[in-house]
Amino acid sequence: MVDTNAHTNAVHPRRKRHRNYVCRARFPLLTICLGLLISAACFAVCAIRTEAVPAASLEPAEPPAPSAPLPENAGRVSPDDWQLLLVNRWNPIPDGYTCELTQLKQGHAVDARAYPDLQAMLDACRAAGLEPLICSSYRTQAKQRELYENKIQRLMDEGYSYEHAVEEAGTVVAVPGTSEHQTGLALDIVDASYQHLDQAQEATPVQQWLMAHSWEYGFVLRYPTGKSETTGIIYEPWHYRYVGREAAREMTGLGLCLEEYVDRFSAQ
After folding, report:
1. Counting CB atoms within 10 angstroms of each CB, which of 52, 130, 146, 198 has the fewest?
2. pLDDT tens, 97-112?
3. For the whole model, what pTM was predicted?
4. pLDDT above 50 for 32
5. What is the DSSP pairing of strand 219-221 with strand 239-242?
6. Phi-psi region of 231 (alpha: psi -120 to 50; beta: other; left: phi over 0)
7. Which of 236, 246, 259, 260 is catalytic?
8. How would you write 100-145 as a 3-class SS string?
C-alpha cells in the first residue's frame, strides 16, 4: 500500500555591518592590524567551507541525455504496448479496455503492472525526507464525467457561455473516455505541505524531486510546460504517467512528451 507524508523549512540569515568611528580616529595603526587579522580569519573560514562542500553537490540534477544517437529500433512503439497507450482528446480509450488494479490507501488504485515501480518511486522520495501525496489515481467513466460536468458548471457560473465553457473545460479536465486516469496508468501527486493543483506546485520539494527522478522509475511528467498544443491539456506539474523505464529514460533525455514519442517511434 502506498503511504504519503513530509515538510521542509529554510532560514535565510542576514548579516549586519558595524562601524566603530572612535577606534579609527584614535588608533589607526591598531585598526589596520585588526582589519588584517579579521580578513585573514575570514579567508581561512571561507576556504574551509568551500573544501567541505563539493561543488558538484551544488549543481542541479540533469536529465538523462542519450550519450549517442538512438538506434533505429530504439523505443519502437507497438499498438499492443500497454505502457505506451496513447490516450488524449484525439485518441479515446479503446473499446473494451480493462486493467487489473492494485488498491492503494485513501481509496486510490493503479494498474497492477505499474504498482511495483510506483511503490519504489514513492519510497525513494520519502527516503529523501519528502512527503509525496497521491490526490488522484484511477477513475471510472462515471467519476470522470462528474468531474468534467462540474468543471463546465463552474466556468458557466463565472460567466462563460456553455460553448466556451465546454471548450475551456476540455483543456483542464479530459472529456470522459479520453482521460489517462481511466487507464490506471496516471496519478496526480502533490507535496503534502502544499496540496493545491496550480503552477506553484512545481516549486515544492516533492515536485522538484519527482521532476528530476521519476524517469528512473518509469514515470514521466505527462503534461509538461510548452507542450499544451501537442497534448491538448494545460501544463500540470503534478500529473505523472507510467510509460515503463526505458521509454521514460528516452522521453526525458530527448525532451519528448508522449504524443511526440509515439509519433517518432511508432512501428511503421
Report:
1. 52
2. 999 999 999 999 999 9
3. 0.73
4. no
5. antiparallel
6. alpha
7. 236
8. CEEECHHHCEEECCCHHHHHHHHHHHHHCCCCEEEEECCCCHHHHH
